[in-house]
Amino acid sequence: MTTPVAAYAAPAAKAPLERTTIERREVGAYDVLIDIKFAGICHSDIHQVREGWGEAIFPMVPGHEIAGIVTEVGSAVTGFKAGDRVGVGCMVDSCRECENCKAGQEQYCVQGNVPTYNGVGRDGEPTYGGYSQKIVVDENYVVRIPDGLPLDTAAPLLCAGITLYSPLKRFGAGPGRKVAIVGLGGLGHMGVKIAHALGAEVTVLSQSLRKKDDGLKLGADHYYATSDPKTFEELAGTFDLIVSTVSAPLDLGAYLSLLKTHGTLANVGAPEEPVSLNLFSVIGGGKSLAGSMIGGIAETQEMLDFCAAHGIGAEIELIAASEINEAYERVLASDVRYRFVIDAATI
Fold first, then answer.
1. Is the pTM value of this prediction over 0.85?
2. What is the mean pLDDT of residues 53-71?
3. Are residues 79 and 62 located together in one domain of the fold?
4. Residue 181 contacts by C-beta under 8 Å, 6 or more apart in sequence?
5. CB 166 within 8 Å of CB 193
6. Is residue 120 domain-shared with residue 221, that is, in the same domain?
């Protein structure tokens, strides 16, 4: 038997979100019922509500930065109990059988993972995300939020945090390494915090110096404006790793020129339109152009434990659900420092 749950949904592409009621499935043997306390607003929510990344499923309940409390567990659940502090990120299932799933890289499931929203579950029903009061998720796709992390500032870690932690770890950010973060927004500010905690020398590359004071407080050692052509002259051949968090097309050649020999430019921002590249930008210097998409479940738990150990949470602005549409416009205007989080009690 399904359970009616209050939520905020977009009824159609590009339509404002509105309060509605959705049905959550019955708690199965391996399921966890979570009372959602907070849900972050990710730029990808806006891309999908507005079909910027292609055709989508409506009505759509966005939200894949979910923090809450377990209120019920299925009969076969072993990892969680009522009262546990938990999180749900960008996926709620995968095939579990392919080489990527078996390697703990469920986000790269060969058959395609089941996204937390704008997806179709194994039961054939559309998935609805965290802009709601409750969610039912298989325990294998739920992570534990350590006691040291407040739930509101922990919620954005379930996407923004793991999206930056994974490439920073994969490409060796640490002591003796020079790392640049492109963009100081919801993703970028987490990149600065995590790269600093990993021990790297951190530079922010932002369009302007408007957020310089913030960047330095968050842990950056240096801060440069990319609107100044001198930046690219001065920093040529400087970095071991650059992580781009921006969702607008970049001049990739210009950023690749900032890498050392064998350096890597890793992209986690996803522009809606294609970008062009002169391959000599990577051939010269043996450089790598890479991508990264969130992280697996085990790595997400590792990230949360790392953030708890280093006192890292997102910088947030807590809002009521009635402010979601306004928040979307402010995200598009870069008018948030640095992540909107919905208080689910207001849904």
1. yes
2. 97
3. yes
4. 164, 188, 191, 192, 195, 202, 203, 204, 205, 220, 242, 243, 245
5. no
6. no
